[in-house]
Structure formats: structure tokens, C-alpha cells
From TrEMBL:
InterPro entries: CRISPR-assoc_prot_Csm2_III-A (IPR010149). It comes from Limosilactobacillus fermentum. This is CRISPR system Cms protein Csm2. The keyword Ribosomal protein does not apply. The gene is csm2. One of its GO terms (biological process) is defense response to virus. Keywords: Antiviral defense, RNA-binding. It holds the Pfam family Csm2_III-A. This subunit may be involved in monitoring complementarity of crRNA and target RNA. The keyword RNA-binding applies.
Amino acid sequence: MAVKITFRKENYVDEAEAVIKDFKHGKYELTTSQIRNLLISTIPLYYAVRTRRSDSYDDLIAAVRINAVYQSGRNQAVKELVTSSGILDILDMINFEDDLKNKSEKILRFCKYMEAMVAYFEFYGDKD
């Protein structure tokens, strides 16, 4: 059963948990290293927003997107996670946000969403 991702501030952590629970019952085995590689790519984006280093985060969003696509191409388990978690759709939605304040809030939420998926992956046990 696929999880419907709405990415609202009141439920994104629950959605991250549901994605991981659903993924754990799937046919692909993901490692801690693979999921952390996705999380690590969000660090420059997170700190740029926290320090208000930019008036546009489009290049950093693109870098996270490119990394997710690259990692997905290297491993079917990562591709399945990227697809089921809606990572690319969320990044597209954020990238087209016109208001910088809203964009910043959504970027921070996205970074926390990624962090929550890693946390729940560890909580429910990994394959490493």
C-alpha cells in the first residue's frame, strides 16, 4: 500500500514514519548508508536557509534533486524510497514557491522530513 504524501506541517513526521513502515514491508532492502546519503545532500540547503544566505535557493534545491535522481539510478531500493516518499515531487513544489518566506519554511520542513525518515529507518531497524 502506497502512502499518500501531503507534506503538511501538521503531519509530515507521521508521513515519514508511514513511508518507512511501508518500505520495510516491501521487496527492496535499503541500507543506512543509502538513506543517509539522501539526507546528507540536504545539509547545505538547510544551513543556507537557517543563515539566510540567499534570496533564492533554487541551485541548492536542484543539487538535492540531482543527488536523489543519481542515487536512485544507482540502486533500485533508493529509487523506490525516493518515489514512495515523494521527494522529487516535494522538491518541485518547493522550487515553484514564489514567496521566499514560504519557500524557506517548506525547505526546513523538507529537511526535517528527510531527517525523520532516517530516524524511523533506524528506529525500525536497518539492514546494515
